[in-house]
């Protein structure tokens, strides 16, 4: 009665060896580190398998269909070549790029996703009026001769210069719109800059926190943001008219 039992005890190890042999005997395995979507996968894979077979293996690990995978190893992994042919070695990093069907459905289009990210980024930025360079001026408070503001109303530009504002060095500044000459005159105590409207690349503005009926406004005089000329305490009712006038959208009332 002992001998069948003995045989039974001996057989399972042999079976498992032969099973293993069917799969791996004579096949050299290589250990890979797969990285997809910030997840890491340790993969043992046969060196004589092709890139296409590796994609199937990645599919079984990640759920990412082979057609949607970009597998990178020193460039794009060729599907028809074996890992041995492209000289994959132990410990090699394999980068996988791609989205599952669900990811794709969740994001309507990459462009929209990118735009949403940009928007989110912008929203994260602190309001301009909290930034140090602007605080310096705003903390002085409103100029004594600040022009009255009218909330919730858009008015066209007055015929007199807009005055009672500060520039970024905290000096008094006034804006004169010379429509017949198509110029904006920025006047300070020291001098008056006469700028052709066409030379102003952009106008940005933002309400001043706590004093939303006044804006801080910048005229972009050169190619980058470094060329912004800041003006503080612009009455809110003139903001749109200033932008439209400077950027060439004429308003007829």
TrEMBL record:
Residues 30-97 form the Ubiquitin-like domain. Coiled coil: none annotated. Residues 1-26 are annotated as: Disordered. It comes from the Eukaryota. GO terms for molecular function: cadherin binding; RNA binding. Residues 1-12 have a biased composition (Basic and acidic residues). It holds the Pfam family PH_UBFD1_C. This is UBFD1 protein. It comes from Leucopsar rothschildi (Bali myna).
